[in-house]
Design goal:
Length: 258
């Protein structure tokens, strides 16, 4: 009997040691683009994360409504067996703030030059609350939709200066051609209760952002009690494209934090 007890104890110790030695499962990183961009804006960040062993998904954000877009991202989260880090750029911040609700596997939120709205706030109101934003002056004539409503684009000849001033002009020109429009309804839709009130949040943005003023981004980071806020001197609104290493580093910090 004593021999059996000794053998059982040895097996338990071995199992515990093996479990302790096993590497922790890295979260899946879901990258959510914002208005006037698409998932390829994350290419540099995704390459770094993949190199470091992370599974990365570039979600296709419809840019139609906060509630509807959040449901699209939430569906992706629900399909993943394991922890998730949600990362949003610009309007994508509003989306991840809602998409995380009800998904217990979301570990943390990362806001990349992104909105982190309080309940009842809209992206349009937040971007205009602080001085420094010039997006309104750079928008093209709205496209009227057959089903009602309008789509917004940035004028291609103003895209570089407005959206991506710290990228090469030729690269910004191609981004302008491929930009995804956002529905007016998405920018004016009031946000629901935000997940940043219950989940660890991280922020990174550039001081040269002309879409969402740096003062607005700093205000939202402080309000959300950001665990770590990184400001990149002179970076434009597409800080993830111009400074992918800094953005990837913050995402990895969010992925590894307890």
């Amino acid at each position: 009997m004593n021999k059996l007890k000794t053998a059982a104890a040895a097996l338990m110790i071995a199992a515990a040691s093996a479990a302790a030695a096993a590497p922790a499962v890295k979260p899946t990183v879901i990258l959510v683009h914002g208005a006037f961009a698409d998932a390829t804006s994350w290419n540099g960040v995704a390459a770094k994360l993949r190199k470091d062993g992370y599974t990365v998904i570039g979600a296709a954000n419809p840019l139609r409504s906060v509630k509807g877009d959040a449901q699209v991202v939430s569906n992706i989260v629900k399909s993943i067996d394991g922890p998730v880090v949600l990362v949003g750029h610009s309007y994508g911040g509003s989306v991840i703030s809602a998409a995380a609700n009800g998904n217990a596997n979301v570990k943390s939120l990362v806001y990349v030059a992104a909105f982190a709205p309080e309940q009842g706030e809209t992206a349009l109101e937040l971007s205009g609350r602080f001085p420094g934003g010039t997006l309104g002056q750079a928008l093209a004539t709205p496209v009227v939709l057959a089903e009602g409503g309008k789509d917004f684009y940035i004028q291609q000849d103003k895209f570089h200066k407005q959206f991506a001033a710290d990228l090469p002009k030729a690269e910004a020109a191609l981004m302008a051609v491929a930009q995804r429009p956002i529905a007016e309804a998405a920018l004016t839709e009031a946000s629901a209760a935000p997940a940043w009130k219950t989940l660890p949040s991280y922020f990174i943005y550039g001081t040269g952002d002309k879409n969402i003023p740096a003062a607005a981004l700093g205000f939202m980071a402080e309000r959300a009690k950001s665990r770590k806020t990184v400001t990149v001197a002179g970076a434009s609104h597409v800080v993830m494209t111009s400074n992918p290493a800094a953005v990837a580093s913050l995402i990895e910090a969010a992925a590894g934090a307890n």
